[in-house]
Prior knowledge:
Elements: H1 2-7, H2 28-37, H3 48-61, E1 69-73, H4 79-87, E2 90-95, H5 98-111, E3 116-119, E4 131-136, H6 146-159, E5 160-171, E6 180-186, E7 197-205, E8 213-220, E9 225-232, H7 237-244, E10 251-255, E11 269-275
Parallel strand pairs: 1-2, 1-4, 2-3, 4-5
Antiparallel strand pairs: 5-11, 6-7, 7-8, 8-9, 10-11
Helix pairs in contact: 3-4
This protein binds S-adenosylmethionine.
Amino acid sequence: MFNELRKYLKKPELYAPSSGKFWDDEHISKGMLEAHLAPHRNAATRSHDFVDKSVEWITSIAPPIKFQQLLDLGCGPGIYAERFHKAGYKVTGIDFSKRSIEYAKKQTLLNKSNIQYYYKDYLTIDYVEQFDVITLIYCDYAVLSISDRQKLLNKVYQALKPDGKFIFDVFTPSMRKPESRSWYYSEKSGFWSDKPHICFEAVYQYDDDDKTELTQTIVITEDTIHCYNIWNHFFTRESLVSEIEPIGFKSLEFYGDVAGKEYSDSGETICVVLTK
Ligand SMILES: C[S@@+](CC[C@H](N)C(=O)[O-])C[C@H]1O[C@@H](n2cnc3c(N)ncnc32)[C@H](O)[C@@H]1O
């Protein structure tokens, strides 16, 4: 135990993997689903008021009468997807949290909204000119490495019909956290474990071109140690242009958030709308 713990106390190599699943973990996904469904929190999903505004804005830039087929990547339990359906889109949702997808499937049956949900890694999609709009909301693009981002952009481009739109958001460098280390003890079940546990939390910054940040949580129970490495990246308009331009989209537009706020150099997020 001592030796295993000690190896986690130094800064990890870039992209060192977690020792277990995060979004799809049996226990963690319970807390995550609660966070998605909490209407006033900006946690796994943004506050539901923001989601309403966001769907209204997306509907205004890609009206469902013309842009019928919508694919929501990382759809979670369908907070956006159900609203997209109500707005008039034919919706497909993909997520690799089994718990979220099971919840979303129950909701679509209850609401008779006929949304197609798939429990799947969105990096493995293989659609050809099937969708008018593809969304990836709440800065999920930013967790991917540059090679996965290129892979996803190419797959999205292939999946869009001509004139189709890809809408996603990212954090700007103003959201980079200072490096830190802290710990806490939880006597009972908490977000990370259903047993009494100690958490070592750390934020590490990397000096690579991609402005990589790691938020690491080591979760120690009486008989287990798990390490969760959550990688993140931060973008400027210029860095986005240079990685997106080679893909071939005919237009790139930038906004301050995924509800259509005006773009500003000092904003916390950038929303990108790409047209094929
Ligand atoms: C921050 S949440 C955002 C959920 C949703 N877009 C929203 O705003 O309500 C990220 C979601 O993406 C999913 N996810 C992350 N990486 C994924 C991948 N490679 N394939 C499929 N789903 C993924 C997670 O399971 C989680 O539900």
